[in-house]
Amino acid sequence: MEKVNNVTVFILRGLSQNPKVEEVCFVFFSLFYLAILLGNLLIILTVRMGNLLKYPMYFFLNYLSSVDICYSSVIAPKMIVDLLAKHKTISYAGCMLQLFGVHFFGPTEVFILIIMAYDRYVAICKPLHYMIIMDQNRCNKIMLGAWVGGFLHSVIQMALVVQLPFCGPNVIDHYFCDVHPVLKLACTDTYVVGVVETANSGTIALGAFVILLISYTFILISLRKQSAEGRRKALSTCGSHIAVVIMFFGPCTFMYMRPDVTFAADKMVAVFYTIITPMLNPLIYTLRNAEVKKAMKKLGHRKVF
Q1: 218 within 8 A of 125, measured Cβ to Cβ
Q2: 219 in Cβ contact with 238 (< 8 Å)
Q3: DSSP states of 170-216 as a string?
């Protein structure tokens, strides 16, 4: 059967259909996006100019901040503009590109969080061999694997969607193009595609969450052998990582570990992992990390004097 695609433009329903609510959301989400850009750029500058890239944890933190900027930039600017627009439209090509970006940078962030958990496990449980195990060459290879993993996941999601015919309804009940809302518009049976998508995204979300829980469990168990000061420092660092994991993976698991159905709360849940987490990451990793705060003070002092 030949693919029929009569849809060239999609209409996004957005976060709300109430103009007053949209105006308030415009102000808040504009500030949130600005905080994402400034906060994560500050972390990147601090790590790079503070000569912290040679330490594995900050090497990965630098890439986490970069991915946060890219991930939110795929979604937030369009969402913010649409909050004041009368007609919230996106072209078919633009929708597919946004879907690709969401499923490229999102899983890449998942993989980086797993890497950071492994890094903390090695640092706390095998401190004497830490710099040997996590040498620069291995860190580079691990990061390359994270980018390749995110790319492969995104290609699979794109391949599932672009081969579908769209010949009728073109209203997406969301504020960005994601697989579940787009599948509802296809004028063919999408059951198999939905199952494959759920298995793909769901496995990454739930699998990563389980791996992270196991990693931090081993870390917490090993802290019993540490000194009081060592436990305090380790708990401070791991506490920030666990906070990010809960905020990011809780909503992701809710969204992708279920069949091809949508709920009214999906849009508000998606805000947590597309906007809130990228905004809070810089605060969590700086306020809970003495080394980063020290490097920021040095960087500020250098700029002033």
Answers
A1: yes
A2: yes
A3: -EESSSS--HHHHHTT-SS--HHHHHHHHHHHHHHHHHHHHHHHHHH
Show me where the domains of the chain are located.
9-304
Cα distances (Å, whole numbers) of residue 220 to 129, 226, 230, 287: 19, 10, 12, 21
CATH superfamily of 9-304: Rhodopsin 7-helix transmembrane proteins (1.20.1070.10)
H or E segment to which residue 241 belongs: helix 228-256
Q: Which of 1, 3, 2 is nearest to 186 (CA)?
A: 3
List, for residues 114-161, the tens digit of each pLDDT value: 898 888 888 888 888 888 899 999 999 999 999 999 999 999 999 989
Other C-beta atoms within 10 Å of 151: how many?
15
At 12, give phi and psi (nearest 5°): -95, 130
Contact 104, 138 (CB under 8 A): no
For 67-125, write each residue's pLDDT tens digit: 999 999 999 999 999 999 888 999 999 999 999 999 999 999 999 988 988 888 888 88
* pTM recorded for the entire structure: 0.88
